[in-house]
Amino acid sequence: MSSLMGVRGIVDPTNFSWPREVEGLNGFVTIPAKPERIITASVGHDESVLALVPAERLVAVGAFTKDETFSNIAEFVKDRPEITRDPETIIAQSPDVVVTSPFFTADGIDALTRVGIPVVQTELKHDPEARINNILFIGYILGEEERALQFAMEVRERYESLVGVTSKAAPQPRVLAVTQYSDKLWVAGSNSTEGGVIVAAGGVNAADEAGIEGNQTTSLEGVIAMAPEVIIIPQPVAFGANEFRESLLNNETLAEVPAIKSGRVFVVESKHFTTLSYWNIRGAEDLARMLWPDDFSANPSPAFSLAE
Questions:
Q1: Which residue, 227, 226, 228, 214, is CA-closest to 186?
Q2: Residues ≥6 apart with Cβ < 8 Å to 51
């Protein structure tokens, strides 16, 4: 499968038998046989795995993956056993492989490796090429190369169809992603998931313009200085998103901020805007409909396909 040439992490892209070797963030790992029992301990990875293998092969998930507030696949895993990142809870499920994120601890990886469980720690990034690489890499780890190639094409085509329209739309509005937790305002600047969604949707990330890197706190004065024309709130409704929106609209200090003045302040589905998986394309599609209603259908975007 020449399409796997150049995929980061695949040591020998001509080897489709077992065992096979891959290189994760935690080094070289040998996978002895096709994994039938899979665990990731990561919402973003769970979302990717469920696109590549039948649901029964994902044998246990974390609490966040089962919670529809944070997970785009909660309905498919509600009956799965629940694990934490404590290695003992993972070992109890007898996985054939653990594919997990950069946030999994080195001590946890060592504990799993010592009992003979292959662990592959892979990147989770939001840029288009990293997204495709991760799908293909995970597909190879799981022995599902054909499905991974098929799904990567679906994801790529959906993204390119979106940006084919939004990249030509003008003038691009300044958009600010802002949330409120514990009385602190947070904005998403460059190299943030929300920032990538804003750009894909045809907006200019106002926080990035202001020189903010990643997700950082700000003040009301900071919001005023960024002067966004559109504000999005990628915060769960269960965590006060609607109340936060009303507080912004009714704050006299912000009255001259263009987004406040025009009422263009939107609560958006947080799990589409903050997930580290292909589902953030859905967030970009949703935002594009808000920014460019004449260019996109008002109908919700379709779901992504799942493995059969």
A1: 214
A2: 135, 151, 278, 304, 305, 306, 307
- CB-based contact 199:205 (threshold 8 Å): yes
Same domain, 144 and 181: no
pLDDT at 236 over 70: yes
Range of the domain at 12: 2-159
Same domain, 110 and 241: no
Residue where one domain finishes, among candidates 131, 159, 187? 159
Whole-structure pTM value = 0.94
Residue 157 region by backbone torsions, left for phi larger than 0, else alpha for psi between -120 and 50, else beta: alpha
In this structure, the answer to whether residues 39 and 80 fall within a common structural domain is yes
Give 291: exposed, middle or buried? Use CB within 10 Å, 0-12, 13-18, 19+. buried
Question: What stretches of the chain show up as alpha helix (H) in DSSP?
Answer: 43-52, 63-66, 74-77, 87-91, 106-114, 128-141, 145-166, 193-200, 206-209, 220-226, 241-249, 258-262, 270-273, 280-291
Pairing of strands 174-181, 184-188: antiparallel
192-226 exposure pattern, b = at least 16 Cβ within 10 A, e = fewer: bbbbbbbbbbbbbbbbbebebeebeebeeebbeeb
**DSSP strands (E only) in 1-64:** 20-24, 27-31, 38-39, 61-62
Task: Give the torsion sign (CA, 159, 160, 164, 169).
Answer: positive
Residue 97 near residue 118, CB atoms below 8 Å = yes
Q: Count up the domains in the chain and report the number.
A: 2
209-230 pLDDT, tens digit per residue, is 999 999 999 999 999 999 999 9
